[in-house]
Amino acid sequence: MKETTIYLIRHAEAEGNLYRRIHGQYDSNVTANGLRQIEALKARFLDVPIDAVYASDLNRTVRTARALAEPKGLTIETDARFREVGIGVWEDVPFGELAQTDAKQMKFFNYDPPKWRVEGAERFPAYTERFLEALKEKAEAHRGGTIAVFAHGCVLSQSLGILFPEKEICHMDNTAVTKLRWDGTFLLDLLGDNSHLSEEISTLAKQNWWRGKDAPPDRNLWFMPYESEIDWYLQLCDDSVPVAPMAVIHFAMLDQNAVGLVQLDPQRDQEEKVGFVDYIGLQKKLRGQRLGIQLLGEAVSYYRNLGREKLRVCLEGSFAKYRDWFLHYGFEPSADGCYDLDIRVPNGK
Prior knowledge:
The protein is an alpha/beta fold. The chain has helices at residues 15-19, 32-44, 59-72, 95-101, 103-111, 124-141, 153-163, 292-305, 323-328; strands at 4-10, 21-22, 52-55, 76-78, 93-94, 146-151, 177-182, 186-193, 222-226, 248-254, 257-265, 274-282, 310-314, 332-333, 338-342. The protein has a seven-stranded mixed sheet with strand order 9-10-11-12-13-15-14. Strands 4-3-6-1-7-8 form a six-stranded mixed sheet. Helix 2 packs parallel to helix 3 (59-72) and helix 6 (124-141) crosses helix 7.
């Protein structure tokens, strides 16, 4: 009987991975680094024959799937059964907040998924069964051929754990590749391989949470909205940053300590569907530790919920020295010393 070759591929780095916010079926963008991962994946598969490309219907998988589909002239066929687990009230919540408010369920989510319970979320049997149902259907439809399926970290690892209970299923890097064969049952040839990624662009290379109990913990922030000055406000800023009359201030919290802030001005440039960021910064002792990007993620989440399409910063005065940081994370020059980040999430392909 003819076998089907199946490549299971996790999506490229997306906003949740970078901003340290939990995204299940929340639809988010691929990051600037994710685009670099996509180019590396594209090069890996350039000479690999593929007959069909499938993806979940979320933007981050569809965008990643183009790495294989476009060079081969294939159409991406979407199937919602390949989506990530729906996580209910947890959607778009910072990991740091969940550690403060729901630590027990976070432990189940990471280490014992069948026990995990969150309001409005899918249960373990539901999301693994719909994924495996779709996977078997596609494998059977392409007997003797080769297909690629683009999906998500949790649903991939938990479904593979059901198929291969004797294997230790690691958490996979963004764009990691697993290779299966189907002849009526699934056979495993390759598991979670990220050899096409350099350490510089690997997502997991920059994180510790997956390395085991002896690794130093990652530091995830949570946010406390506050609408007026408090005593230590100016101590968190480089300079005396005046509070705009309509400013919205979100304090970045590490455990129970305020360590930074995001100052937002939702009135400014709103007619352009722009979300304006007055200030974003951390205490000096915490800079250079990849924490600042979580503050940017808070601004993106806030303004996307207001229907804004771009995030804008004006890099003037002492703030100008952070120009390269904003460019690295996808901002582009606009007008008058300002830089914009497109935060729209495309629909479809």
